[in-house]
């Protein structure tokens, strides 16, 4: 069986399950739609792609201070409480927040690896595990920032769930080029220039996707664009030249914020996707308490059949 690693942007998926599914109540009245939905996604994706290894990548810190120090607006609109010396509290609907510990318990009972890193987001965990994995990698996410990881030669692609898990798109280098007019290895610079309101990244004022793409097509990368700005003889127009100059402070720090980490010290052993639940007794208790029989039975069946 060919080895394949499936990396899940876990929060992206359980948020999607919560907002995209009707309320489903456990016997005590707790909504468990995100738990059930995430298990369903794992079953669906495992059945379709038949990975040998799978990791639920976790946001140990969804808004790392080192990124905020560089760009204070980074994800600021999603903060409900600032915490000194610990991750800020993110805006999460109460019915979803109650489900997150249940998700962790169910994943542990299955024996599905969950990996996070202090001071880093799930994106950084994904970037690190996808780099030098030694096998093809599929990254499941609704976050376009991770398009920067696409690498045909290394076998890294994105399963982009922006239109839904059932309608996900397989993002390779040709897809990125066709969609945005830039190479995948230019995507981080493209995102830096364009900005992203959903992450509180202002971008370069007046530079949208088309302008960012055209500059990268001509000057290759951000360093090349800045060099063109400083070169009076370059053919960069006065409008874009002025916009890049005015954004100099932002451009000095934004690339460090946009780039996902690829070198965190993370475990790379014991990432195999289990074929049977690690703790069937505990899993049975969780099924009973949270009314999870249908998604658990489905996932258990898919896992058992992966070697067939």
Low-confidence stretches: none
Count of DSSP E strands? 8
Note the run of SSEs as H and E.
EHHEHEEHHEHEEEHHHHHHHH
- How far apart are the termini? 10 Å
* H/I helix tally: 14
Helix content bin: 40-55%
Please state how the strands of the largest beta sheet are arranged side by side.
5-2-1-6-7-8
Quaternary status: single chain
Proportion of strand residues: 5-15%
Mean pLDDT: 96
Shape: globular
Main structural class = alpha/beta
Main pleated sheet: 6 strands, mixed
Radius of gyration: 21 Å
Short note summarizing the structure:
With 308 residues, the protein is an alpha/beta fold. The chain is built from 14 helices and eight strands.
Would you kindly provide a written description of the structure presented here, covering whatever features stand out?
44% of the residues lie in helices and 10% in strands. It is built from 14 helices and eight strands. It has helices at residues 10-20, 33-49, 65-70, 94-97, 100-110, 122-130, 173-180, 187-194, 209-219, 222-230, 238-246, 248-258, 280-290, 293-304; strands spanning 5-9, 53-57, 79-81, 89-90, 114-115, 137-141, 156-160, 169-171. A six-stranded mixed sheet has the order 5-2-1-6-7-8. A two-stranded antiparallel ribbon has the order 3-4. The longest helix is centred in the N-terminal third of the chain and has 17 residues, at 33-49.
């Amino acid at each position: 069986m060919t080895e394949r690693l499936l990396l899940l942007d876990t929060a992206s998926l359980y948020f999607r399950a919560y907002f995209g599914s009707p309320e489903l109540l456990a016997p005590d009245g707790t909504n468990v739609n995100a738990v059930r939905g995430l298990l369903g996604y794992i079953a669906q994706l495992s059945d379709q792609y038949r990975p040998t290894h799978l990791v639920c990548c976790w946001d140990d810190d969804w808004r790392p201070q080192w990124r905020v120090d560089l760009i204070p607006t980074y994800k600021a609109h999603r903060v409900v409480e600032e915490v000194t010396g610990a991750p800020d509290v993110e805006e999460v609907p109460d019915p979803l927040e109650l489900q997150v510990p249940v998700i962790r318990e169910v994943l542990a009972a299955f024996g599905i690896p969950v990996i996070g890193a202090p001071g880093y987001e799930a994106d950084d965990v994904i970037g690190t595990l996808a780099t030098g994995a030694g096998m093809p990698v599929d990254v499941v996410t609704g976050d376009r920032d991770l398009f920067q990881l696409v690498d045909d030669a290394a076998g890294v692609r994105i399963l982009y769930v922006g239109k839904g898990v059932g309608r996900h798109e397989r993002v390779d280098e040709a897809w990125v080029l066709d969609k945005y007019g830039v190479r995948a290895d230019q995507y981080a610079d493209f995102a830096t220039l364009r900005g992203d309101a959903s992450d509180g990244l202002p971008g370069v004022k007046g530079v949208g996707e088309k302008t960012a793409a055209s500059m990268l097509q001509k000057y290759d990368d951000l360093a090349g664009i800045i060099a063109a700005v400083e070169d009076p003889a370059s053919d960069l127009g006065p409008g874009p030249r002025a916009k890049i100059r005015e954004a100099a402070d932002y451009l000095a720090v934004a690339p460090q914020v946009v780039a996902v980490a690829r070198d965190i010290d993370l475990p790379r052993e014991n990432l195999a996707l289990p074929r049977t639940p690690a703790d069937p007794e505990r899993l049975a208790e969780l099924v009973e308490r949270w009314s999870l029989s249908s998604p658990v039975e489905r996932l258990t069946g898919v896992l058992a059949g992966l070697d067939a």
